[in-house]
Amino acid sequence: MTAQTPPRQSSGPLRPAALPTGAGRIGWLGPVLALLLIGLAVLAGQDAWTRLVSGGQSTWLGALLAAPDGLAPASWLAAPAAVAVVLGLLLVLAAFSRRTRKALVLRGDLGAHLTTRDVARLAAGAARQVDGVLDASAVATRRKVTVQATTTGDAGTRAALQAQVERALSALTHAPRVSIDASSADKEASR
Q1: I need a labelling partner for 57 at 20 to 30 A (CA). Which of 5, 35, 148, 171 fits?
Q2: Which of 170, 173, 128 has its CA nearest to residue 147?
Q3: How far apart are CA 113 and CA 107, in angstroms?
Q4: DSSP class per residue in 131-168
């Protein structure tokens, strides 16, 4: 006879995934530090190889460390040292600053989200569906969507454009503010 285990009880819906974030302000520092570490590894490798093979003749690292020998302290070095300290503090502050968030949550308990690029595409697509719109493009942030549209110049096109884009973005929990920049095709042709 085999023992059966009771089915596992669900404690409710799963938690939605965390919103994706960007690399932050310090994203460029990683490759720079990697290149510096590669340079340091080349120096250490040449030093080790020279000491191992040729019995400790002149090495790059030895020459680099012997170069400042005999130099006296100078007062002009205070300014570059202060700049280096301030630069180091700024890099530490940037490393601990908040990372950029470029996602907006969709309504519902799905945990689904759209990036700002997707929101711009959604707004531009909704704008192109409006009668009287010849072409449309959009730029989006988490707080504002700017739609640039070329229209036939009809009077009600701008209001219809605003309503259509706001309706498309109403699927977001916190819909960004919509700004419409509409220009007539006749005005564009006269330029």
Answers
A1: 35
A2: 128
A3: 9
A4: TTEEEEEEEE-SSEEEEEEEE---TTHHHHHHHHHHHH
Which CATH superfamily is 103-190 part of?
A: Cation efflux protein, cytoplasmic domain (3.30.70.1350)
Spell out the domain ranges in the chain: 23-65+80-100, 103-190
Question: What's the sign of the alpha-carbon dihedral 167, 172, 173, 174?
Answer: negative
Of 169, 164, 170, which Cα lies nearest the Cα of 120? Answer: 169
What pTM, to 2 d.p., does this model score? Answer: 0.59
Is residue 184's pLDDT more than 70?
Answer: yes
Q: Which residue has the tokens 């909704």?
A: 126
Rg (CA), the chain: 30
Q: Are 43 and 64 in contact (CB under 8 A)?
A: yes
pLDDT digits (tens, 9 = 90+) for 90-120: 877 877 777 777 888 888 767 788 999 999 9
Closest among 102, 99, 93, 94 to 140, alpha carbons compared: 102
